[in-house]
Write a structure and sequence with these properties.
38% helix, two-stranded antiparallel ribbon, 7 helices, Rossmann fold, six-stranded parallel β-sheet
């Protein structure tokens, strides 16, 4: 099979961040972007995140590293935690861009993306699901992505922020 050279990544920012944090390390986003480009021919890497005004330096760094940021307005939940649910935005963007990419990587552990993963898989558009952490990865994703799921547990040496 010929290697696909026009692949897109759709990254659930909060899920990725919390998943990596639960492993006890911090992700170097610049290294991660280079890794995606070099190893998987990711041309466009969408990073979906709830917008928090105080996080502007992070957003600038992500843009400099080559991510396309998609913001969702945030609202505080009952406990005062900020919530910016990006699930629908990620699915919508993946479908808008569907004719533009060869394969997609979905970076998340969230089972809410089951239907998107299933659709991409059935249409030979799923490169794989990249889950931060095997223990927190949705069993729905594990079931649907089958052999097309990779875990980031072993990437600490390559992608840890110094």
């Amino acid at each position: 099979m010929q290697e696909q050279k026009n692949n897109y990544a759709f990254i659930d920012g909060q899920n990725l961040n919390l998943g990596i944090k639960s492993l006890g390390w911090k992700l170097d986003y610049s290294r991660f972007r280079k890794y995606l480009a070099e190893k998987y021919s990711i041309k466009v890497a969408y990073y979906f995140v709830g917008y928090v005004p105080g996080n502007q330096p992070l957003y600038s760094d992500l843009q400099k590293a080559g991510y396309v940021l998609i913001f969702k307005p945030t609202i505080p939940d009952g406990d005062g935690n900020v919530k910016g649910n990006i699930d629908a935005d990620l699915v919508l963007q993946a479908m808008i861009d569907f004719p533009n990419y060869d394969k997609a990587i979905i970076a998340t552990s969230d089972g809410d993306f089951y239907s998107l993963v299933k659709h991409l898989y059935q249409n030979s558009k799923l490169r794989f699901v990249m889950s931060p952490y095997v223990k927190t990865c949705s069993s729905l994703l594990k079931k649907e992505a089958k052999e097309k799921i990779v875990f980031m547990d072993n990437l600490k040496g390559k992608l840890k922020r110094a």
